[in-house]
Amino acid sequence: MSKPNEPIVSHIFTADPSAHVFEGKIYIYPSHDLDHDGPTNDNGDQYQMEDYHILSMEDANSPCIDHGEALHVKDVPWASKQMWAPDAAFKNNTYYLYFPARDKDGIFRIGVATSASPAGPFKAEENYIPGSYSIDPAVLVDEDNRAFMYFGGLWGGQLEKWTTGEFVADAADPDVNGPALGPLVAELTEDMLTFKSDPVEISIVDEEGNPLLAGDEERRYFEGPWMHKYNGKYYLSYSTGSTHKLVYAIGDNPQGPFVYKGTILTPVIGWTTHHSIVEFQNKWYLFYHDASLSGGVDHKRSVKFTELKYNEDGTIQTIDPYDN
């Protein structure tokens, strides 16, 4: 039985959950953590994930079902390794799985695979999405049926290496006194397989309209974007990385700008934090991960979930993951 604040599965290690309601169930698209005997570093070499298992739950109190391997790196023609945090979307009577992986040159790109079923298996397109780079794709299919992909991550995610428009392997981190790098957004074409135009950076500002600074590690963007709508507003949520929080900003347009509002989830056991937010049966839920099941071994994480609540003004109530 799945319970809030406990791992939804314990037979495998899962992380980076993207939760969606498809066909009346909650489907979760996580990454799959494996044993690792190589280096652990800021480049993310400890995260050697190579396939995806799709999970589902009939409701918040039901057992979580593992539908088995849905896609493996060996079946992705352009990819070499590291199938990191994925997302999924439904449009055109088709399910789309979006995923980052390193290409044959070691550069992170974003691929897409398709299926007739939300549980997979998925078949990958021959090539990655042209113009894609970095990690952590998240897709919003809006009420008007336009679809937007949000993506990007610092350090291991290589985002800071693309500021010139080309990949620069030894690019420096952003100036701590200058604007932080934001996530990127690109509208998807009608077939959901390519970008309509080049990705653009999203502006995240404070209440006075000033861009968040790269040195503001309590609030600035690091990785793991997620987009959801609540009462007509767009909510961009993300990980701060080095300060291990999930935070959010609110805007009136899916492409921004977004005004920083506060913390959704305080730090979990383990270095990384990554999440999704979904409405199901008139409640809102936060899916996230921590490393408690593995005894704090960060490259072996487990997906959990808990109810998420809003205040009357639309702000989100901060969650302590270990407050029982």
TrEMBL record:
Record flagged with keyword Hydrolase: yes
Keyword Hydrolase: yes
SUPFAM superfamilies hit by this protein: Arabinanase/levansucrase/invertase
Coiled-coil annotated spans: none
Pfam short name (any one): Glyco_hydro_43
Family matches, as CDD domains: GH43_CoXyl43_like
Keywords: Carbohydrate metabolism, Glycosidase, Hydrolase, Polysaccharide degradation, Xylan degradation
PANTHER family xref list: ENDO-1,4-BETA-XYLANASE, PUTATIVE (AFU_ORTHOLOGUE AFUA_2G04480)-RELATED
Family label: Belongs to the glycosyl hydrolase 43 family.
Name of the featured protein: Alpha-N-arabinofuranosidase
Organism: Paenibacillus glycanilyticus
Name of the encoding gene: xsa
